[in-house]
Design goal:
Helix 2 (about 40-50) runs parallel beside helix 7. The chain is built from ten helices and 14 strands. It is elongated and about 75 Å long. It is α/β, with parallel strands linked by helices. It has a seven-stranded mixed β-sheet with strand order 2-3-1-4-7-6-5. Strands 10-9-8-11-12-14-13 form a seven-stranded mixed β-sheet, with helices on one face. The chain has two domains: about 5-150, VC0802-like, CATH 3.30.2130; about 175-215 and about 235-365, Rossmann fold, CATH 3.40.50.
């Protein structure tokens, strides 16, 4: 059975998610905050497995305008839930309301839960719903009186790759790191180096992308636990992803950081990602960093200096970064920064810029 599917994404990444879905063979359309496509439950698993820049994948069960609780009740009750859910299904409901007449998430959750329960009880002839079986988390988004009723297929958000279990200061989200790699202009053909690598997220995502390693290869997704999913098909999709992973295709990738603790965490993450034999990291100050004379692609997410006390230190770091690239005349630089003074301190205007968001913080990806 085919479902309407939604891959949610951070603002600014919808086009990348659409491109990834197109490369997987789906006909996808990008909208604000998400990308629409269609497919089976097994297709939802494949999207979860391969999407690098999406937050999660959901089934879109219904959508429509709702201005009263009765409207919401009818919308949810009108879904043939029994096509998806067994009689013992657990269906926790979460609701988000933004600029709508219905602005009480708790009341909307209660109404939606009642409508769904009544539909299942009527179909399965049950006096109540035990909710003792597989989980089908319901997410309802009401924005300007337009509601979308979705079922989460991912479980943990897709940025949870499984390799990062220790966090340093201000960690970069894995999905954003993957987006930076894809938007940087790096083609995997020359060495990449992160001179302020922190706990290694950019390095790992660059290696995964170059080696065609599915980001969800070692984790599980909620859709796997549902009764109507073909275990044989999922096994085939997973085996295809394992066969596509080519660690030998990883070009020289390395990084450094002035903080020894960050490098220690980075080495642990590299080991958990299975890349400790492919990526080299060390403690070093970029102010004195000197690599060999071959072309190098610098990829960096330096500190932003959000606290006033850090501003002078960050501006000095940006000036040192310009001196670093000057010492490497064949180098290119892609840097993600939330500091509006980066270009002035660096001493050059970027050739290209792209607005992105690191959480709620507006940033720019600048290419030099």
């Amino acid at each position: 059975m085919n479902y309407n599917l939604i891959a949610s994404a951070a603002f600014g990444l919808e086009g990348l998610v659409r491109r990834e879905l197109n490369q997987l063979g789906f006909d996808a359309q990008a909208e604000n905050g998400f990308v629409r496509f269609s497919g089976t439950l097994e297709d939802a698993y494949r999207a979860n497995l391969w999407l690098r820049t999406a937050d999660r994948v959901s089934l879109l069960m219904a959508e429509g305008d709702v201005r009263t609780f009765e409207d919401l009740f009818r919308l949810v009750r009108g879904v043939t839930w029994q096509q998806l859910m067994p009689r013992d299904a657990a269906f926790p409901v979460q609701c988000k309301c933004v600029r709508s007449q219905l602005m009480s998430p708790s009341d909307c959750q209660a109404i939606a839960k009642k409508a769904l329960a009544e539909e299942l009880m009527a179909y399965y002839h049950m006096p109540w719903c035990s909710e003792s079986g597989p989980h089908f988390p319901i997410h309802i988004s009401i924005h300007q009186n337009h509601a979308r009723v979705m079922v989460d297929t991912s479980g943990d958000a897709l940025n949870k790759r499984g390799y990062r279990t220790w966090n340093g200061e201000a960690p970069l989200r894995e999905t954003l790191a993957a987006a930076v790699v894809q938007l940087s202009g790096w083609k995997g053909d020359i060495p990449v180096y992160d001179p302020c690598c922190g706990t290694g997220t950019l390095l790992i995502e660059a290696a995964y992308w170059a080696a065609r390693r599915a980001p969800g290869l070692t984790r599980h997704f909620l859709v796997e636990t549902w009764p109507d999913v073909s275990a044989k098909t999922l096994e085939r999709i997973l085996n295809e992803a394992k066969a596509a992973y080519t660690p030998s295709a990883v070009p020289p990738i390395a990084g450094s950081d002035i903080d020894p603790q960050a490098i220690e965490l980075c080495k642990r993450h590299l080991q958990q990602a299975g890349l400790d034999q492919h990526i080299t990291v060390s403690v070093a100050d970029l102010a004195t960093l000197q690599l060999d004379d071959s072309p190098v692609f610098f990829l960096a997410n330096p500190p932003y200096g959000e606290r006033l006390s850090d501003q002078k230190q960050c501006l000095a770091l940006y000036r040192a970064m310009r001196q670093m690239t000057d010492r490497h005349p064949q180098s290119r630089l892609a840097v993600l920064s939330g500091n509006p003074s980066f270009e002035r301190a660096y001493g050059r205007r970027a050739n290209k810029k792209r607005r992105l968001y690191n959480g709620r913080l507006e940033c720019e990806l600048m290419l030099f």
